[in-house]
Amino acid sequence: MIEVKIVSRGGQGGVTTARILAKAAMEEGLYSQAIPQFGAERRGAKVYSYLRIDEKPIRRHTKVEKPKIVAYFDEKLVEEDYAEIKILNGFAEGFCCLNANKIAEELGLVSSGWYLISSPMSGAIAKVLGISLSSLKYAVMSEFSSKVNENVLAAKRGYEVVKC
């Protein structure tokens, strides 16, 4: 089983990213679950989302305690962790990196001054997970009802530009 922890701010799309990746994994014939963890958070507050992917049914339904992969949507959210693979919207040594904010800005995925980075981050995480680009595109298309083409392109760019 592969377990992923996503650390984002409310409004950046961390919960959406977990849903997109769970759908993409199911499209690959795998079992998956997306688990958001939040309470009365508001835009800008720290939000955790979890993703599990496996070849067999997943019986565990708790938060992920020891993820193999951690994705940080903001450099300021980086925490002490022991994940094998760390993905960062930004640039730092020891991380798989991309500039998801720039991708979102270039494609007009901005709302009230906030970069909507669920699609480029989904692309980066999918690449690290070994999920195909076609399954990712399917999942992104099924998640969004507006700016679908922009989100598909953002996911594709995130998939292509992430550097480990």
Give the topology:
Elements: E1 2-9, H1 14-27, E2 31-37, E3 46-54, E4 69-72, E5 85-89, E6 96-98, H2 100-106, E7 110-111, E8 114-115, H3 118-129, H4 133-143, H5 148-161
Parallel strand pairs: 1-4, 4-5, 5-6
Antiparallel strand pairs: 1-3, 2-3, 7-8
Strand proportion, as a percent range, falls in: 15-25%
- How far is the first residue's CA from the last residue's CA? 22 Å
Strand order of the largest sheet: 2-3-1-4-5-6
Number of strands: 8
Number of DSSP helices?
A: 5
* Rg (CA only): 14 Å
Helical content, roughly?
Answer: 25-40%
Keywords:
single chain; 164 residues; alpha/beta; six-stranded mixed sheet; two-stranded antiparallel sheet; 8 strands; 35% helix; 24% strand; globular
Overview of the structural elements:
- The chain is α/β, with parallel strands linked by helices and 164 residues long.
- 35% of the residues lie in helices and 24% in strands.
- The protein has helices at 14-27, 100-106, 118-129, 133-143, 148-161, and strands at residues 2-9, 31-37, 46-54, 69-72, 85-89, 96-98, 110-111, 114-115.
- A 6-stranded mixed beta sheet has the order 2-3-1-4-5-6.
Summarize the structure.
This protein has 5 helices and 8 strands, in the order E-H-E-E-E-E-E-H-E-E-H-H-H. It is an alpha/beta fold and 164 residues long.
